[in-house]
Amino acid sequence: MLTISLMLVLSACNSESPMQSNNSHQELKVLKFRDAAPLTLHKKANIKKNITVQEGGSLALQHGTADGAAANFVYANVSLDVLPGALSADAEIGLELETTELQGGVALTFEPHSVVFSQPAVLNLIAHGLDFSGIDPDAVDIFYDDAETGMWIPMQRDNVIVDAELGTVQVINALLPHFSRYAIGLP
């Protein structure tokens, strides 16, 4: 298994390994932060917000740190937009960014696990401080874990922009039909 120095996983349905699909042995090479990521980044940040059927709503979470050197700048910014009418009932939606358990990496969790949208929610994400050593930047994409097939499936999205030299990946307008396990990586 290839180890990469930054991990970016988004989940909502379970806490299994972010690299292996639930029902098969298919693995995904998940991006990780540089080894130089400061240990002060290792903590949890979360937000919860009531989202209404009539108005929809948005969640946004930013988390970053630097130890004074540009090479050690690590940053993640994620937003989730729920369109009016996308939920069947008003709900409290949660987003947690955790860097405590995955040294050098980031995990995003959406709650509650049972949420299904009648119109997809829109996810935007940017992460800086990734290590692309040995990675083909053109192959990086965002995937979801299809529980029925056990495969990591590329998600519908407008774009994934990678700047390997800067260590940055940006996901633009990824469509989430429900909360599942999501990851940025390579098949």
Helix and strand arrangement:
Elements: E1 7-11, E2 29-30, E3 44-51, E4 57-65, E5 74-82, E6 91-98, E7 105-111, E8 116-128, E9 141-146, E10 151-154, E11 159-163, E12 168-178, E13 182-186
Textual characterization of the structure:
The chain has 187 residues and is mostly beta strands. It has a single domain (7-186), classed as Chondroitinase Ac, Chain A, domain 3 (Sandwich). The chain is globular, with a radius of gyration of 16 Å. It has strands spanning 7-11, 29-30, 44-51, 57-65, 74-82, 91-98, 105-111, 116-128, 141-146, 151-154, 159-163, 168-178, 182-186.
CATH class, named Mainly Beta
Beta-strand percent range: over 45%
The CATH topology assignment is: Chondroitinase Ac, Chain A, domain 3
Number of domains: 1
By DSSP (H or I, 4+ residues per run), the number of helices equals 0
- Report the biggest beta sheet as strand number plus sense, adding barrel if it closes: 8 strands, mixed
Rg measurement, Å? 16 Å
The residue fraction in helices comes out at under 10%
Q: How far apart are the first and last residues' alpha carbons, in Å?
A: 12 Å
* Structural class computed from helices and strand pairing: mainly beta
How many runs of DSSP E, i.e. beta strands? 13
Low-confidence stretches: 1-7, 13-18, 100-104
CATH architecture: Sandwich
Backbone shape: globular
Provide the succession of SSEs. EEEEEEEEEEEEE
Mean pLDDT: 75
